[in-house]
């Protein structure tokens, strides 16, 4: 996982190392779950955060991540492969905010 805290040892110099916590947290989620590059993850995360903030919703609650996992699982159950899901979410990151009926 990529963190935003500085360490005494040499910190990772990627773009996520200096991102705000909510942004790096969501970006890490995308890197870990869908193998986004750091740049792709930051781009998609920024769009999701702006959307949620414009709606007055707290940026990244634990329930957001649970729902995002449900969205990814739903898409996989419908036959989409990880690269297809990654492309969809990169192009339209608001998909992660969709509600899945369980």
Q: What is the topology?
A:
Elements: H1 21-34, H2 38-54, H3 62-77, H4 82-91
Helix pairs in contact: 1-2
Percent in helix: 55-70%
Q: What is the rounded distance between the termini?
A: 29 Å
Q: Please give the count of helices.
A: 4
**What's the quaternary structure here?**
single chain
State the domain count.
Answer: 1
Beta-strand percent range: under 5%
Number of strands: 0
Which structural class do the helices and strands define? mainly alpha
Query: Residue-averaged pLDDT, rounded?
Result: 81
Shape: globular
| Low-confidence regions | 1-13
Please trace the helix and strand order, writing H or E for each element.
HHHH
- How would a crystallographer describe the biggest sheet? none
Cα radius of gyration in angstroms: 14 Å
Q: How would you describe this protein?
A:
With 102 residues, the chain is mainly alpha-helical. The protein has one domain (16-97). It is built from four helices and no strands. Helix 1 packs across helix 2 (38-54). The chain is globular, with a radius of gyration of 14 Å. The termini are far apart. The model is unreliable at 1-13 (pLDDT under 50).
Compact description:
The protein contains four helices and no strands.
Any key phrases for this structure?
single chain; 102 residues; mainly alpha
């Amino acid at each position: 996982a990529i963190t935003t805290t500085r360490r005494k040892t040499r910190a990772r110099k990627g773009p996520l190392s200096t991102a705000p916590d909510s942004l790096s947290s969501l970006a890490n989620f995308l890197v870990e779950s869908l193998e986004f590059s750091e740049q792709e993850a930051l781009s998609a995360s920024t769009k999701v955060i702006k959307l949620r903030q414009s709606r007055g919703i707290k940026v990244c609650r634990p329930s957001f991540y649970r729902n995002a996992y449900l969205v990814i699982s739903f898409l996989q159950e419908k036959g989409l492969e990880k690269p297809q899901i990654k492309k969809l979410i990169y192009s339209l990151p608001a998909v992660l905010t969709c509600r899945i009926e369980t």
